[in-house]
Amino acid sequence: MSNDNGLINAIKSHNPFDRPLVVRSQDIWVTGFPDVPSLNAHASDAVFDAIEKVRTKQQSVIGITIKAERGLGKSHLISRIRHRLQTDGSALFVYTSEINDLNRIKAEFLRNLANSLKHIGSQGMSQWRELATAIFNQAYNKAFTPDEMVRHFSEVLKVNSKVVEHWTDRVLGIKHDIENPDIIAAILWTLSSNPSEERYAINWLAGQELPQSRADALGLANTSAQDREAQAFSTVRQILDLISDYKPIVICFDELESILMCNDAGYTASQVTAILAKDLYDKIKRGVFITAMFPQTWTDQIRALKEAESVTDRIAQRSIELTYLKSDDVIALVSQWLQDFYDQQEVTPPHSVYPFDEAKLRELGKEKPMVRKVLQWCAENWTIPSVITSPQPLNHPVESAYKKELVAVESKIQDDIEDKTKLSNALRFSFSTLVGQILEKVKITEIADIKARSIDQGYINFKIVGQEKGNVVKIGVAILQGVSGRFLQAGLKRLIEYKEFDLTRGCLIRSKKISSGTKAKQYLDILLSHHLGGEWVLLKAEDIKPLLAINSVMKARNDYELTEVQIIDFALQNRIVLDNNLIHEILTDPSGQIPEDAVDEDI
Fold first, then answer.
1. What values do phi and psi take at 100, rounded to 5?
2. Coil, helix or strand for 111?
3. CA distance 465 to 420
4. DSSP label at 103?
5. Residue in 266, 551, 534 with CA at minimum distance from that of residue 408
6. Residue 21 has what pLDDT?
7. Terminal Cα-to-Cα distance of the chain (whole angstroms)
8. Higher pLDDT pick, 551 / 9
9. CB of 160 within 8 A of CB of 192?
10. Cα 179 from chain centroid?
11. Contact predicate 517/490, CB 8 Å
12. Fewer CB near the last or first residue (10 Å), C or N of the chain?
């Protein structure tokens, strides 16, 4: 063994197993945990075989259902698939795990599709740019790489402002099945070296309404919220067809059980997603569907659907079950984690599982443990052999999960701060932890739904009911972020209808300016008037990040093996909500002022 002191110091200074051991959706896209190829190799081999069959046109579409108990490595497996595809470029990859509104499942999937394609593909640029380059190359019989294509786009745009319009017409000349030419135009705009143009093009593809000035600049048509919802599935299908002309697409649905709500029809998240997967299966030209779920979900929910046979015949053409670890698997898992650790520390251990005893690890393997349990055991038993260390103070059980989610939120805050549903869920949960507390002289008694006709739903997110100076207060909270035009106008119109929605105060949450001379600005002026006494609270990233993070922990509490009580206790102990500026601003007496720091919507 070389460098004994270096080895001992490395072990003393850092425990590589002392980290959140749950693979979350954000981990799928990054190089996270060490991959052990031998674990669940039968499952990944089956997926790669299916991708190859679709790529070589032996089959057009294949549905694979992966069944496994919690902790057996479903998400580890999906991460392996994603990284193989990023390396070999045999398919584009779409991952969806977070459905905020089951009643808008098609629009939610479109958003997940657009966000997935923002991630880097096999050619060092976003999958959107890979697709745009392939579309251009096919239309013009070229062989540009995405990197070359971005430079070419920039050069041509300087001398021809109508370049996207001309290229779109050329593409439509060979692709006659595209119903909405704006889809082609928006995909081509993702080649722009101007980050703002690229971002707005992807937002449009994700189904968002753009500021009218931006829509006009890109030549894209804005549609109403109702029309976008109705058109979402058509947009999804057209995008997937464009991809299929280029290479297969792998669409993965994961973490369905973490969403506990039902939609208007009474279906659970797993059922709604399985039906969507079936509908997509029937419509796309070329692809592989992977649906990961618990065996009990398959039995109790998917098989219980009225249309169960038509769903299962498609999403489970191949059914794969993941298995518990055996002794050899435990050794392979621990060895791989330790090899990565020692390589980083540049030291050489005396054997592959040092400082652990191989016999003890093999005994652990006889219990058929889950991956997470083995790694937890390693974290708890990390010490230099024959050296007794003083016990370390125990952290709050929620702390590591919260830190992990906070890092994830910070990495994607640009997207999250435009997702009004996600923002609403985070704020609503945060306020729910304050029921019974007094904050800004308001004793919070209830966080309630807004009772409204279907035409009025979705504009005011919830209301805070409480007591202030002996009077009942009912604050309607409308998060009108990531919206403009007609939706913004409609939301503000409803926020000033106190009697209709049983409010005593309206509170707008938004970071961007509202243009003067618009109907929305007229409604805003009424809201902020002395007569109504409403409030505009400026949404700031630094305020919403911790609320998004603690809400993410709550949503994933089963994966983290935490309870609601533990999470709320952690939030209260660390004053995550109690000291949050955004929470205080919503409850404080309204100033009636337009925030000076509101940003221009075009930025």
1. -85, -25
2. helix
3. 21
4. G
5. 551
6. 76
7. 58
8. 551
9. no
10. 28
11. no
12. C
Residue 364 CA, chain-centre distance (Å), reads 35
Distance (Å, rounded) from C-alpha 319 to C-alpha 161? 51
- CA distances for 265 relative to 268, 303, 322, angstroms: 9, 17, 32
Sequence-ordered list of residues with C-beta below 8 angstroms from that of 476, at least 6 positions apart, any chain: 450, 460, 462, 463, 495, 498, 501, 503, 505, 506, 507
Q: SS3 of 56, please?
A: coil
410 and 366 in contact (C-beta within 8 Å)? no
CA atoms lying within 13 Å on the CB side of residue 182? 19
State the pLDDT at residue 1.
40
- Residues pairing with 448 in the sheet: 463
Q: Which residues of 8-32 are buried (b: 16+ CB within 10 A; e: fewer)?
A: eebbeeebbbbebbbbbbbbbbeeb
pLDDT tens-digit map of 282-304: 999 999 999 999 999 999 999 99
Neighbours of 577 (CB within 10 A): 24
List the one residue out of 191, 151, 199 whose CA is nearest residue 171: 191
What is the token pair recorded at 161?
């402002």
CA distance 101 to 225: 14
* Amino acid identity, position 26: Q
3-state secondary structure of 232: helix
Q: Is the pLDDT of residue 390 over 80?
A: no
Total count of residues recorded for the chain? 603
Question: Which amino acid is located at 348 in the chain?
Answer: T
- Coil/strand/helix, residue 183: helix
What pTM does this model have? 0.82
Comparing CA positions, the residue from 116, 6, 9 lying closest to residue 387 is: 9
Strand pairing of 442-448 and 462-468? Answer: antiparallel
* Tokens at 369, concatenated: 């443990």
CA distance 376 to 15: 11
Reported as a single tens digit per residue, the pLDDT across 221-262 is: 987 766 777 889 999 999 999 999 999 999 999 877 755 566
Structure tokens at 431: 């306020």
Q: What distance in Å separates the CA atoms of residue 7 and residue 1, rounded to the nearest whole number?
A: 9
CA separation for the pair 79, 303 (Å, rounded): 27
**Residue 99 above 90 pLDDT?**
no
Mean pLDDT for the chain overall: 90
Query: Of 388, 353, 348, which Cα lies nearest the Cα of 374?
Result: 353
Q: CA 325 to CA 368: how far, in whole Å?
A: 5
pLDDT bucket at 23, cuts 50 / 70 / 90: confident
d(CA 408, CA 424): 18
- Which stretch of 45-54, 121-130, 260-269, 474-483 has the lowest confidence by average pLDDT? 260-269
Using alpha carbons, list the distances in angstroms from residue 392 to 39, 311, 388, 389, 403: 32, 51, 12, 9, 19
